[in-house]
Design brief:
Layout: E1 4-10, E2 16-19, H1 21-26, E3 36-43, E4 48-54, H2 59-71, H3 87-97, E5 100-106, E6 109-110, E7 116-122, E8 130-138
Antiparallel strand pairs: 1-8, 2-7, 3-5, 3-8, 4-7, 5-6
Amino acid sequence: MPWIQRLVELPPLPRGFHLVTHEVLAALPEIGQIGTGLMHVFIQHTSASLSINENADSDVPLDLESSLSAIAPENFPHRHTSEGPDDMPAHVKSSLLGCSLSIPIQNGKPCLGTWQGIFLCEHRNHAGSRRLVVTVFGE
């Protein structure tokens, strides 16, 4: 099977961790034909990030957001402030979590654990839409 690459455009979302597994997989119906492969998900932004985390308990995304906000608070004396007080902390959080994920594919499905999901981590208070580039290869 040749390489497959799709752009997934997500609507503006509020600050926090948002489960986007369904949106990512919906963009790649061909994944069901892959026995063994790899899916790479990349976010084209520097003030949001991606994470694989628990998708069963709604307290987990809330706790992750509050924990990261404690690590990178808006009231820290940042130099880069031209885009608002939430912008530089968003860059810090994005650097901590990262801009991409690599997920193995087995028997037509991503090898996510029972409680794992793909999360868009929105670090801005009033962000716009976000773009993900999803690339898949396998046989």
